[in-house]
Amino acid sequence: MAAEQHPGGYDDGYDALMAAITGEPLPPDAGPDTRGEYRSATADVALLREQLNLLGDALGDAEPQDRPAPAPAPVAAPAPAPVP
């Protein structure tokens, strides 16, 4: 499957961040630069997931505040009919 997705090889246009996001494993033929990019991208994605989980937990536990309902929007009066 990976060979079909990356026919030019992994060092030719390989997107390490997309691979880290989708969980695609790093192939054994990846070069050292690609391995470094992948490690960095994997760490970034892990940190992002952690922060998003914290944000989701905070928003999910938030108590709704008692606020008055917003005032209804004004309704525009219809235009007068043209005089013949």
From TrEMBL:
Q: Where is this region: Disordered?
A: 1-37, 57-84
Pro residues composition bias: residue spans: 67-84
Which top-rank group of organisms is this from?
Answer: Bacteria
- Stated name of the protein: Uncharacterized protein
Q: What organism does the UniProt record list as the source? A: Streptomyces coelicoflavus
